[in-house]
Each structure stands twice: as C-alpha cells, then as structure tokens.
Design goal:
Elements: E1 15-20, E2 27-32, E3 38-44, E4 51-52, E5 65-66, E6 68-72, H1 81-91, E7 96-97, E8 102-103, E9 108-110, H2 125-133, E10 152-153, E11 163-164, E12 166-174, E13 177-185, E14 190-192, E15 199-201, H3 214-219, E16 235-240, H4 246-263, E17 264-265, E18 275-280, H5 290-311
Parallel strand pairs: 6-9, 16-18
Antiparallel strand pairs: 1-2, 2-6, 3-5, 3-18, 4-9, 7-8, 10-11, 12-13, 13-16, 14-15, 14-17
Helix pairs in contact: 1-2, 4-5
Length: 325
C-alpha cells in the first residue's frame, strides 16, 4: 500500500517549490535535483505536447544529467517559467560544466489552463524563479497550487460539465529504493480509481449533480458535439534514488505512463500532451531492476493522480470531487 502522506520529496535530494498566481488559477511547480544533477529521462504521449529540452533527454544525446524540471500552466506561454529556473540555478552556480560556465539544464512541460480567468495572466520567468526559491525537501502542497492551480478534468462533453483537477504526489519504497512522483492532472478524460474502476472525478451529467462514465457514455451512443483542441494535458515527474542510465530512465518514464492510463480514461488523446519525466539521483548507490522501478513508478503516478483530485477544491462553476457524487 502507498502511504497517503508519502511524497516525491521522500527521495533524498529532491526539492519541490510552487508558484501560484493570485490573479487567476494558474501557476508552476519546480522540481529540483541535487546540486550535482540527476540522470534524466522523459516519455511524451498524446498529440498536443508543449515541452522544452526533451530532445536532450534522448539516450543517444550528450548531456545525461539535468538540474530541475518545471511543470507549468499557461499553455505554451508557460514554458517561459523554465527560463526563470535557469536564472535561479545559474545564480546558485548549478549547471552542466562547460568550463567557461555552468549551464543549467531544465526540461519543462506545460498544460492548458487558459480557460479560467484572464488568459493574458500566465506563469513567466519570474514565476519559475519564485518556484525554485520556494523549493524545499518538505512534503509539497497538493490540489489548487502550482501547476495544478488551473487544472481541470472531464472535458470531453464541454468545459461546463468539467470538474476541478490539481496536483498530487506519492512515493513507495522497496528494498531501500524509493520511487516518488508529482503529477499535475489536467485531463480531458475522467479520473478513475484503478483499485475498483470507480469514476472519482470527470465529466458530469447534464444537471451537473453527478459524474458520468465518459467512455461508457460515448460507447452507448452519446457522442460529444464539439471537441476543442488544446484543452488538456497531464504532466509529472518521477524521481528515484536508484542509479540509472539515460536509457533506463527513459524506460521508467515509459512505464510510468501506465499509471496515467490506469487512472485517466481516456488518456493520451489528440487533445492531451501527457509527459512524464524521470530524475534518478543515484543516492542509494545501487541500480535496482528497471522493470521493478518502472512498476513502482506506474503505481505512484496513479496514486499521485488520485491525490491531485482528492486534494483539489472547487472554483466558481467548477466543482471538485467533494461537491459531486
């Protein structure tokens, strides 16, 4: 069983900081590696990704360690938050040593939250800097904070029948190896409890009083009238204290996406840019079995998704799981 009080920061050396806008529901989340960096990997699914530095994480490419990952709202505009993280790391002397400078390596991914409030307000470089400045090894806040501030779920039948998403975290330990995750859940699909198949949060009935099963509803013949592109995306980071190669880190990111598929239905759609990063700190000083680590990663990703929606709180005309049955 996964401890409900567990978090990605159970991986020694990992720090997390949020920046949340006070002007509208949006924000960003910085996941900092130890000063020496962490071996990075990534897996991107769906057809609407918004990312930065993912090509660098290809195992055939040179740099194998990254210094932070930034998750942000604001659609493509939110990628600017990573620039602030680069500045923060540069000021602290952290980065890839090219002799004449240390260049911070900061992959990033964004989600679409522009439908809530003024779309001109989105995370920028100052927000990314502030998220890094706020980063600690304490258990990070969940729900309507950071990259989860403007997250929503269940949008297949329109935004007016959606529910509040959020950001959540979890970890699991096996034989001294820790695997943790933090996930911002902004899916077009429903959030499903993998243990029993129950819809936790998602598209609501026309009267708004209860959830429906999006997949079953569509298969029964109720087809959405309009599907709006660019409205979704679930993004997250998996961290472990195992020693990994880039290829192994990439494989664990791939397996971690199984957690997205178990907990969100449908997932990886034309309207989602689902992306999961891996950070391997090597702090345990042993490799572990990548298949077992990938299994653990899928479990903590699914648990983080559930934590995200259970921790979320309602916004005007956008109820949370606590207000819909």
């Amino acid at each position: 069983m996964i401890d409900p009080h567990s978090a990605i920061t159970d991986v020694t050396g990992i720090k997390v900081g949020h920046w949340t806008s006070s002007a509208r529901p949006t924000g960003c989340t910085a996941v900092l590696a130890p000063p020496s960096g962490a071996v990075g990997g990534v897996d991107v699914r769906g057809s609407a990704p918004g990312t930065r530095e993912t090509d660098l994480l290809n195992p055939e490419n040179l740099v194998d360690r990254v210094n932070a990952v930034v998750l942000a709202g604001g659609s493509a505009f939110g990628l600017d938050a990573a620039t602030g993280a680069v500045r923060w790391l540069d000021e602290h002397g952290i980065g890839y040593d090219v002799r004449i400078a240390k260049v911070p390596i900061v992959p990033s991914a964004i989600l679409f939250d522009l439908a809530l409030g003024d779309p001109k307000i989105r995370p920028d470089a100052a927000a990314g800097y502030a998220a890094c400045d706020a980063a600690t090894a304490e258990r990070p806040a969940e729900g309507n904070v950071g990259a989860g501030a403007g997250a929503t779920v269940g949008k297949m039948f329109g935004f007016d029948r959606a529910m509040k998403g959020g950001i959540g975290t979890a970890s699991v330990t096996l034989d001294g190896l820790v695997v943790g995750a933090i996930v911002a859940v902004n899916a077009i699909g429903d959030v499903v409890d993998p243990s029993n198949g129950r819809i936790v949060a998602g598209a609501r009935s026309k009267d708004g009083k209860k959830t429906i099963d999006t997949v079953r509803t569509i298969l029964s013949g109720e087809i959405p009238a309009i599907l709006t592109p660019g409205t979704a995306t679930t993004i997250g980071v998996v961290a472990t204290n195992a020693e990994l190669t880039k290829a192994q880190a990439q494989k664990i990111a791939q397996m971690a996406q199984d957690g997205v598929a178990r907990a969100i239905a449908p997932s990886h759609t034309m309207f989602d840019g689902d992306a999961i990063f891996t950070l391997a700190t090597g702090g345990a000083r042993k490799t572990g079995n990548p298949t077992l680590l990938g299994l653990m990663a899928a479990e903590v990703v699914a648990a983080s998704i559930l934590r995200a929606v259970y921790s979320a709180r309602s916004l005007p005309n956008l109820p949370s799981v606590h207000d819909v049955h």
